[in-house]
Amino acid sequence: MKVASCPLCQSEEVSLVDRVDTDDLVQLYRARFGVAVADHFDGIDQLSFFNCSSCHLRFFSPMIAGSQSFYQQLNRHPWYYLEEKSEYRTVANLIPRGAKVLDIGCGEGKFARSLPACEYVGLEMNLTASASKGDDAPTILDESIADHSKRQPGHYDFVCSFQVLEHVVDLNGFITDSLKCLRTGGRLVVSVPAADSFIAQTINGLLNMPPHHLTWWPDHTLSHVAVRYGLVLERLIHEPLERLHYRRYAFNKAWGLIGRRFRLIDRTPIYRLGSLLLLPVAVIGWLMLIFNSSATIHGHSVVAVYRNGNQE
Ligand SMILES: [Zn+2]
To answer: Are residues 217 and 282 both part of a single domain?
Structure first.
């Protein structure tokens, strides 16, 4: 049997973590979000989920990315594009006035609102998300990072991508093209869902699976990116657990107490019954979060800041 290789470091030293039936994905996406995904998995019954022994990236195979229609369906949900991602403020604090900033996969360019006076350019190929226009609207180009890197090599002080990398199939192409846009001494800023957080213990966490997320990023993998691309990892910033995720965090903790093997998808009667029985424990955990500080608990996202080269 052909074994998958890691999409980041190309190592074939990968271990199987779990398998997912695509029928389960189709049914759960329909039931939970009203989104049709069956056309993504034509002729594919199962996806494998691997851990790379070398860089520790976790990835699904085959890597099936969401179509434009998939994202158009998700975009109908108001929660999908949050008004302001918490990491916007974290990253904006690192950027000085006047900096040239590229924001890849920028949606409606909301990050621009968090920035001091900067030369901001966003790239967004999902036109429905970037439809807003106006005199003070940020500059948003309908252009791929590959094309943009040919037009603007070495131009930017900061090249950022928020919650993008985990959707990308060609990781090396994406990172290489991002770096081409950076000047020497500029910063590559990558924000991804943190695999070293509660979301990696979320059973039936649909949005962390294909066709939405294709890869999971632990801190070790984010450190590996620096080594692989000759960068200096300056900061690794875990966003604190947000109130909106308290319930999920407490529920995952409750499941962790009984030591049952983690499955990406669990639709068994045992899981349903266990979820009911564990509810009081989860409620106690949730109340403890409400009345105690959650500042030291890893939240949904992690931000990695890399310097391009050894000089400022
Ligand atoms: Zn790897």
So the answer is: no
49 Cα to the center of ligand 1, angstroms: 13
Q: Measure 14 CA to ligand 1 centroid, in angstroms.
A: 8
The CA distance from 297 to 197, in Å, is 8
Residue 5 alpha carbon to ligand 1 centre in Å: 8
In a domain, 281, yes or no: yes
Quote the distance between the C-alpha of residue 111 and its chain's center. Answer: 16
For the chain, what is the radius of gyration of the CA atoms?
Answer: 20
Indicate whether 145 and 24 sit together in one domain.
no
**pLDDT digits over 72-113, tens only?**
888 888 777 655 577 999 999 999 999 999 999 998 899 999
Query: What type of residue sits at position 48?
Result: S
Residues measured by CB to lie within 5 Å of ligand 1, the ion: 6, 8-9, 11, 52, 54-55, 57
Query: Is residue 46 domain-shared with residue 139, that is, in the same domain?
Result: no
Q: Tell me the one-letter amino acid at 173.
A: G
Q: How far, in Å, is the centroid of ligand 1 from the Cα of 185?
A: 26
Instruction: Give pLDDT tens digits for 115-162.
Output: 978 999 999 987 664 455 666 789 999 999 999 999 999 999 999 999
What is the 8 CA–ligand 1 centroid distance (Å)?
Answer: 5
Residues 208 and 101 in one domain: yes
**Token output for 188:** 């590559």
